[in-house]
């Protein structure tokens, strides 16, 4: 075997040629799926072989020099060896950060290895200690399963999910479109880390849907795990649920079981999570029919557009909404905030309850400071510790952490009861009473009594041991150990006196490790060894000689040390048995701790909302929440919270008035870099924050609750999926047109940029009319198609623009970032190019060509009554007929189901539509002129 690089000194995986060949043959017999990473445990060092080894060498070592080969280096099996710290880093990368791999750990030697542990992004329990030894568990892993069926050309989707940490199961069925828009919203709401899908053939009518499902999972950051169809069988589902569910009553869940696709998905997720194999979970889970309308729907495009979660490229936390709002003191609160940002509320009452609590905390700084800085700071991760306790996999140190959390509960309860504001009763009934019940004499007070009786609290934090007084047998062993240790101390003093040395100065009592055993011995430095060498040789036995000195013993000391070792082994064995007993008793408090963890996390998040609202550059205000049918979203003095939080930013406030019948559809025009995108996004962010339960960065706000926020902002291409920029834009827009309701909020920025001006304008016009007339939802539409400002609609259209100022002498453009009423007829793109310091000759040529193009396009514009958006034209009646026919053609063309048509059929239908347009143009000279201009162009 060749060994190069920094890990060459690590123990080798195989030793001789025969075992090398045996290992290679065995390894090659395994599935070579690159999504599976296999680690081979070798007592502190971990090997990875195959293609993943090369990736690890490049990614983490930044070199391939550490790669070892079994056999010929030119074509042998590559491998890389990791120490413990790097191994844990790689685990986090594969399972948590990238969340794209399954990890398996093997133990053995030579060619004989056995898989001992396995984990994937949705199942982290097997590696939880390594993954979160020195880092926070930032997300709760949720696993989903999906099934599909086709009836009369319609897709029906069945989903189920399992949250093992909260012991929750859910399932539902719904119809969906070819882009799986509803499914994407559900995946985002649940925050699924892994999705189980049935293996499907690569060809056939459903093959395209399988590819789309993988795309949905990729966009949502979930690993798609394909499993055999047999995993989705429901033969034993009712029997398994009877054992798994609390109360064991399966009949009350007929609403789930009578939905066949939901039941299949539920069977699959239970099998994948191996819930029936964990007897500690039996009788503990809850099942519910998942209500898709319980939370606001957000797809991955909206999350990206509104910067909800922190991206790896963000320079600081304030760039994302989560980073800005994350003021929680506990890890539990941080996790819950991520869940809430994916599940904004749609119930006015529930939203107002959160707002009431935030208001109580904002108006009582003493309470806020007491809870955040005295009681929640340093609070352990009760949720994670409770999960370990539920698996009976926790240590005495973990129990002591829970004990510390329990001791704080009465103080938190007392602080909450001291509040005297208008929402004092809400704090008392929602939190204080629940904490008091959890900490009464029948619950966590007993837990504390158990720990106080069982654990030797005086030794904490140096070591965590069962108190000797807890068990008579343990107490006897402890007494014997103490007696032997006293004897060893006397023998050490006798030896020091015999050698004329001073104990603990020139001679020391230490430990010696040999044959995996530790025994007591004496040590002297090399300098002292030379002085007492004769006596040392005559009366004592040398155990080890090193640079730091010589370790030795005598017969009496050796016998005492061996007796101490035997007693220590018995003591440790009894300690382990007693620890298991204590953990078993503590396990009975799991449900209480689950309740407490939820309460603490919720209080922590709402305290963070209050802290953010008070300490923002300009304090936030409480929004007035209105029912969905109210038809009003009015934000006065609105700001973007993430932008105003950046250093050296003096944010310009703007008003937004979305009122049905007046300004329900708003068209925002103006120059590049003028603030259009920031303006429309800040409206979406404010609505999202309000429905999460936070105050908003406005002077005042009235918000009708939205069931969904759709955002098409800055689409990019995806070369790996074969999706162009324009296609990505169209896919996101299609999701809006098919998924939006009159209770949604739609934000569109620069639609139609990825194609020709005519096509882009036509699509923008047709989409705008559809949103107004067919859907009727409030919409913010930022565009450079100034001709769109002539739009009219039944919901009420308002034109707004971002203000600029141009110095007449120098021609310099200044952005004012103010949004005012009225349309803007210029984009100032060339001025922006001047900002970017384009060469003067290029700028001048651009101005000249822009004027030439404007003269060319002037007679060809299809919008009646406008010429370049600047001046009225003659012949309005004919022009209006021309515009109407052109719009009809564009709408007919846009309505063609291109994704379901053969290319030849699509071309033929497009030719027929165009031929009819040419026939109509014979009676409409302006339309004929337009077609001739387009053809000439």
TrEMBL record:
Record-linked InterPro entries: DNA_mismatch_repair_Msh2, DNA_mismatch_repair_MutS-lik_N, DNA_mismatch_repair_MutS_C, DNA_mismatch_repair_MutS_clamp, DNA_mismatch_repair_MutS_core, DNA_mismatch_repair_MutS_N, DNA_mismatch_repair_MutS_sf, DNA_mmatch_repair_MutS_con_dom
Molecular function as annotated in GO: ATP binding; ATP-dependent DNA damage sensor activity; mismatched DNA binding
Domain of life (superkingdom): Eukaryota
Tagged with keyword Transmembrane: no
Listed GO CC annotations: MutSalpha complex
Keyword annotations of the record: ATP-binding, DNA damage, DNA repair, DNA-binding, Nucleotide-binding, Nucleus
Stored Pfam families: MutS_I (PF01624), MutS_II (PF05188), MutS_III (PF05192), MutS_IV (PF05190), MutS_V (PF00488)
Domain DNA mismatch repair proteins mutS family: 744-760
Gene Ontology biological process terms, A to Z: mismatch repair; mitotic recombination; negative regulation of DNA metabolic process
Function, in words: Component of the post-replicative DNA mismatch repair system (MMR).
PANTHER family on file: DNA MISMATCH REPAIR PROTEIN MSH2, DNA MISMATCH REPAIR PROTEIN MUTS FAMILY MEMBER
Family: Belongs to the DNA mismatch repair MutS family.
Protein name, as recorded: DNA mismatch repair protein MSH2
Organism listed in the record: [Myrmecia] bisecta
């Amino acid at each position: 075997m060749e060994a190069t690089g920094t890990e060459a000194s690590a123990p080798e995986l195989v030793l001789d040629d025969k075992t090398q060949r045996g290992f290679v043959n065995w390894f090659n017999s395994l599935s070579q799926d690159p999504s599976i990473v296999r680690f081979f445990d070798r007592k502190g060092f971990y090997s990875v072989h195959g293609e993943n080894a090369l990736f690890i060498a490049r990614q983490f070592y930044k070199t391939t020099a550490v790669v070892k080969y079994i056999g010929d280096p030119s074509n042998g099996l590559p491998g890389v060896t990791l120490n413990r710290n790097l191994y844990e880093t790689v685990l986090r990368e594969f399972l948590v950060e990238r969340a794209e791999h399954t990890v398996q750990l093997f133990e053995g030697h030579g060619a004989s290895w056995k898989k001992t542990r396995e984990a994937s992004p949705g199942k982290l329990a097997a590696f939880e200690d390594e993954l979160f030894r020195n880092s926070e568990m930032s997300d709760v892993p949720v696993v989903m399963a999906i099934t599909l069926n086709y009836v009369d050309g319609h897709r029906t989707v069945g989903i189920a999910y399992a949250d093992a940490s909260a012991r929750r199961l859910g399932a539902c069925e719904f119809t969906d479109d070819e882009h799986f828009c509803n499914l994407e919203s559900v995946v985002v709401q649940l925050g699924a880390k892994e999705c189980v899908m049935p293996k499907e053939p690569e060809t056939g009518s459903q093959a395209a849907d399988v590819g789309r499902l993988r795309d949905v999972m990729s966009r949502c950051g979930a690993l798609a795990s394909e499993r055999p169809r047999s995993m989705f069988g429901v033969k034993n589902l009712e029997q398994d649920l009877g054992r798994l569910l609390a109360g064991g009553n399966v009949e009350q869940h007929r609403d789930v079981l009578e939905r066949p696709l939901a039941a299949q998905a539920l069977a699959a997720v239970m099998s994948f999570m191996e819930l029936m194999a964990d007897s500690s979970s039996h009788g503990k889970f809850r099942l519910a029919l998942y209500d898709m309308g319980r939370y606001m729907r957000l797809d991955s495009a909206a999350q990206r557009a509104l910067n909800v979660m922190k991206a790896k490229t963000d320079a600081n936390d304030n760039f994302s909404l989560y980073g800005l709002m994350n003021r929680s003191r506990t890890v539990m609160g941080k996790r819950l905030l991520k869940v809430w940002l994916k599940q904004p509320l749609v119930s006015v009452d529930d939203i107002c309850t959160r707002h009431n609590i935030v208001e109580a905390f904002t108006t009582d700084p003493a309470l806020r400071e007491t809870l955040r800085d005295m009681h929640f700071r340093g609070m352990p991760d009760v949720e994670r510790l409770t999960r370990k306790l539920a698996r009976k996999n926790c240590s005495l140190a973990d129990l002591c952490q829970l004990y510390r959390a329990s001791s704080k509960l009465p103080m938190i309860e007392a602080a909450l009861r001291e509040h005297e504001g208008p929402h004092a009763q809400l704090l008392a009934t929602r939190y204080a009473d629940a904490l008091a019940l959890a900490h009464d004499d029948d619950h966590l007070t007993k837990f504390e009594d158990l720990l106080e009786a069982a654990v030797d609290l005086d030794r904490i934090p140096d070591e965590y041991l069962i108190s000797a007084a807890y068990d008579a047998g343990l107490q006897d062993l402890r007494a014997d150990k103490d007696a032997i240790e006293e004897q060893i101390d006397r023998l050490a003093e006798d030896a020091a006196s015999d050698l004329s040395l001073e104990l603990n100065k020139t001679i020391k009592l230490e430990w010696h490790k040999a044959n995996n055993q530790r025994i007591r011995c004496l040590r002297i430095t090399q300098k002292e060894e030379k002085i007492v060498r004769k006596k040392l040789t005559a009366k004592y036995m040398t155990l080890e000689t090193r640079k730091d000195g010589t370790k030795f013993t005598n017969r009496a000391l050796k016998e005492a040390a061996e007796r101490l070792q035997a007693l220590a082994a018995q003591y440790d064995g009894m300690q382990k048995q007693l620890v298991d007993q204590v953990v078993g008793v503590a396990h009975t408090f799991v449900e209480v701790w689950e309740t407490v963890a939820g309460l603490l996390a919720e209080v922590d998040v709402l305290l963070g909302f209050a802290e953010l609202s008070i300490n923002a550059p300009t304090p936030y205000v409480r929004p007035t929440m209105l029912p969905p049918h109210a038809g009003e979203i009015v934000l006065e003095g609105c700001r973007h919270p993430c932008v105003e939080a950046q250093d050296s930013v003096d944010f310009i406030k703007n008003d937004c008035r979305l009122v049905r019948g007046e300004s329900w559809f708003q068209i925002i025009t103006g120059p590049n870099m003028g603030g259009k995108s920031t303006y429309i996004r800040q409206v979406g962010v404010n609505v999202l924050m309000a429905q999460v339960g936070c105050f908003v960065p406005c002077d005042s706000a009235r918000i009708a609750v939205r069931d969904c926020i759709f955002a098409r902002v800055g689409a990019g291409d995806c070369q790996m999926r074969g999706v162009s920029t324009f296609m990505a834009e169209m896919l996101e827009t299609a999701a809006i047109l098919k998924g939006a309701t009159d209770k949604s909020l739609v934000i569109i920025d620069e639609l139609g940029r990825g194609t020709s001006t005519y096509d882009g304008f036509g699509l923008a016009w047709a989409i705008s009319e559809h949103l107004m007339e067919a859907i009727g939802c409030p919409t913010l539409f930022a565009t450079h198609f100034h001709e769109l400002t002539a739009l009219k609609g039944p919901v009420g259209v308002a034109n707004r623009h971002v203000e600029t100022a141009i110095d007449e002498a120098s021609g310099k453009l200044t952005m004012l970032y103010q949004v005012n009423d009225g349309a803007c007829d210029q984009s100032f793109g060339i001025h922006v190019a001047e900002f970017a310091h384009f060469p003067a000759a290029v700028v001048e040529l651009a101005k000249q060509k822009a004027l030439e193009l404007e003269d060319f396009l002037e007679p060809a514009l299809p919008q009646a009554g406008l010429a370049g958006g600047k001046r009225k034209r003659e012949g309005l009646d004919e022009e209006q007929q021309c515009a109407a026919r052109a719009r009809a053609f564009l709408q007919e063309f846009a309505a063609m189901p291109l994704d379901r048509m053969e290319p030849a059929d699509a071309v033929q239908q497009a030719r027929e539509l165009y031929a009819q347009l040419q026939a109509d143009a014979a009676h409409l000279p302006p339309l004929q002129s337009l077609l001739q201009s387009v053809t000439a162009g």
